[in-house]
Amino acid sequence: MIKILGRSNSINVRKVLWLCEELDVEYEREDWGREFKSPKSTEYLALNPNATIPTIIDNEFVLWQSNSIIRYLANQYNSQRLYSTEAKQRAIIDQWIDWQAIELNNSWMYALMNIIRHSPKHQDPALVQHSIKEWISNMQILENQLAETQAYVTGHNFTLADIPIGLSVQRWYLTPFDKPDYFHVKRYYDLLSERPAYLKWGNNGQN
């Protein structure tokens, strides 16, 4: 039984929950972060010195950083079905996971904090518009990739890369601002929404 530490409305925790459902891995979750138990507590910091969520405990094995966690779970409980062991195929999966974490995630951050979180530290209109512009630019990259694959991010089959990117697409549609009508992104969104695990933890109304 894997223990997942983190609140269920965190996009990074939802990556792990979605993957556990895909892999049919048993888990239990504890609420940590924001209004729940503080990840800055001595108890939590002993597991994760960054005070971030999620952290998992798999028997005696402790791991933090959401993308490291999903890679570990795919390796430990899935082998090749979602995370190919062939070097070139795995590199492409990793490429898109890292692209989401670095390029896409950073592009939306200021706009999201303004539009959804109403953060008083993110109230500069010029920076909001810059963030939206960068977000749209990155979504165009995804649109082009999906036009090429005509299915999932890396090809015909669902892979580990579709979990962080699928959550990002859901965030794109739930954040209200004027956005391009990307045909292939919408088709991808609908394709993912046929997966029960995505409906439970990905496309479930949380942003």
UniProtKB/TrEMBL annotation:
Stored InterPro entries: Glutathione-S-Trfase_C-like, Glutathione-S-Trfase_C_sf, Glutathione_S-Trfase, Glutathione_S-Trfase_N, Thioredoxin-like_sf
Gene3D superfamilies: 1.20.1050.10, Glutaredoxin
UniProt keywords, alphabetically: Transferase
Family assignment from sequence similarity: Belongs to the GST superfamily.
Domain GST C-terminal: 86-207
The EC number(s) this enzyme carries: 2.5.1.18
The organism's place on the tree of life at top rank: Bacteria
Domain annotation GST N-terminal: ranges: 1-81
Organism, as annotated: Acinetobacter stercoris
Chain segments annotated as transmembrane: none
GO MF annotations, alphabetized: glutathione transferase activity
Protein's name in the database: Glutathione S-transferase GstB
